[in-house]
Design a protein that fits this description.
binds D-MYO-inositol-1-phosphate, 8 helices, seven-stranded mixed β-sheet, hydrolase, 24% strand, 276 residues, Fructose-1,6-Bisphosphatase, Chain A, domain 1, 35% helix, Inositol_monoPase_Li-sen, magnesium, Inositol_monoP_metal-BS, D-Maltodextrin-Binding Protein, domain 2, EC 3.1.3.25, alpha+beta
């Protein structure tokens, strides 16, 4: 069956704006949190409300579309990516930031058809930063075309890093080892507190690379696509092919940069994967 991607894009842009108004209005308020996989992994009622708003809004127009949503999945549902049109949703990435009123949280949504990404949108409504991409049409920041940086030397790179919500010692050890190795190698390390916005900094040309162990398909789907549409590359952190369900990702402005990062970093394999 054919799919009207323009109609999908228009609808989702409208739903994302609506969602953004709610997130922005509540950013400075006090929130009640529920704990998920780890004591520092949170969900708020706003996460759940935004996910529902997006899913209900899309389902009304496209009843046969499928959804992989952060909050749905964390209720124990299995994630299965099929050929069907599938929306992968993180209603609020950087929930910890949102809880603290630190102004870097984002709504992330991507549409995959036949497992190929067609649409990616990331919106930080607090700072009004909107990243958008359609397959083959480039990436945009607040409507302006964006490109990755053209740096090829890792010693002159800014590298995005995230500490993650899993603070068990084996995971923290890998994070710290990588921080320790890379900070002496590159211009600087940066951390926005959310995988999605970190990855988008590579698309914007503000950083050269980002890597992540432990985030999920919903953190990667829209953001890695936006990087590719901005001219960058997505790999597994070992240098192999990216696997969206593996909870492992490396994005870079180009292959030269990616290869230098792959050669440096200590690997971590989170479990379980998103699809098992
Ligand atoms: C989390 C953030 C965090 C990353 C975690 C993610 P959430 O997403 O991106 O920076 O380290 O792995 O799960 O829970 O805020 O949507």
């Amino acid at each position: 069956s054919s799919i009207d991607l323009n109609a999908c894009y228009d609808l989702v842009m409208q739903l994302v704006s609506q969602s953004g108004e709610i997130v922005a209005a509540r950013n400075s308020q006090r929130k009640t949190v529920q704990i998920k996989s780890h004591p520092t992994d949170f969900v708020t009622e706003t996460d759940q409300q935004i996910e529902k708003l997006l899913i209900d809004g899309i389902r009304k127009k496209f009843p046969d579309h499928k959804f992989i949503g952060e909050e749905e999945s964390s209720e124990g549902k299995k994630v299965q990516l099929t050929e069907a049109p599938t929306w992968i949703i993180d209603p609020i990435d950087g929930t910890m930031n949102f809880v603290h009123s630190f102004p870097h949280s984002a709504i992330s949504i991507a549409l995959l058809v036949n497992k190929v990404t067609e649409i990616g949108i990331v919106y930080n409504p607090v700072l009004e930063q909107k990243f958008t991409a359609r397959r083959g049409q480039g990436a945009f920041y607040n409507g302006k075309r964006i490109h990755v940086s053209d740096e090829t030397d890792i010693t002159k790179a800014l590298i995005m890093i995230e500490f993650g919500t899993n603070r068990e010692s084996d995971k923290v050890k890998v994070v710290m080892e990588n921080l320790n190795l890379l900070v002496r190698k590159c211009h600087g390390m940066r951390c926005l507190g959310g995988a999605v916005l970190n990855i988008c900094m590579v698309a914007l040309g503000g950083a050269e690379c980002a890597f992540d162990f432990g985030a999920h398909a919903w953190d990667y789907a829209a953001s890695e696509f936006i990087v590719r549409e901005a001219g960058g590359v997505t790999l597994d952190p070992s240098g192999g092919n990216f696997d969206i369900m593996s909870r492992r990702l490396l994005v870079a402005n180009n292959m030269e940069m990616a290869n230098q990062l792959v050669a440096e970093i200590v690997q971590y394999y989170p479990s379980p994967r998103d699809d098992e």
